[in-house]
Amino acid sequence: MKYFPDLKNKSVIVTGGSKGVGKKIALSFAEHGSMVIIIGRDEDALSKVTKELKQFNSLCSYIVADISKTKEIDILFDKIHKIVDKIDILINNAGINIAKPALDITENDWDNVHNINLKSLFFCSKKVATNMISHKCGKIINIASQMAFVGYWNRSAYCASKGGVVQLTKALAIEWAEYNINVNAVAPTFVKTDLTNNMFEDIEFKKDVYKRIPFKKLASVEDVSNAVLFLSSNVSDFITGETIKVDGGWTAI
User: Fold this and answer.
1) Measured between alpha carbons, how far is 171 from 241 in angstroms, rounded to an integer?
2) Which residue in 62, 152, 158, 210 is the catalytic one?
3) Residue 210 falls in the annotated catalytic set
4) Domain 5-252: which CATH class?
């Protein structure tokens, strides 16, 4: 079902767009007729998803890049600008978690999580903003997490990085409002995907998560993508600096 007809023919960049939530976000835009470019490190996965995207818009494509490295971000956007002149929407979805007790987190663990979850998000946004400023419009949506608002076991680096995403969203929204650029975020709870299935084989962990969500279920990839579509469409033009929690009520308690 197409909810946002204004997204047709928009140019959309989705980092981490080959799997899980990122894949669903990319497909949701393509179903609306957007021209989507997905970014990731796994070329086989990117190629397969792009074939699905092309069923809706033949101009969809992918670029292989490791955005944890700022030099690769520069190269990435040189390639993007050869494909499309105007970037309408950026979805900063790429993210990782290294689940360890805080006392076991190494400097390398910390850097890996922050390089993907926060550093790459900033430098991708900076590159896109240069393009959007020249056109005096654009939408940037960052995928944060409910863990930006609550603590949880074995997620110290992740919580810190996602808390940074929420604050960075506010800072960029303030700086770029004069150029008519909206910067917002979506903060999901645990999402049911192939990537999280193994996690929930731990029965005690599953029970603990479910008891914290008033709806007593995980978020679906559609729940997240729908929030992203809303923030990307013209119905949200007066919203900026906000984070929509898609958490089933976890943080309301």
Assistant:
1) 8
2) 158
3) no
4) alpha beta
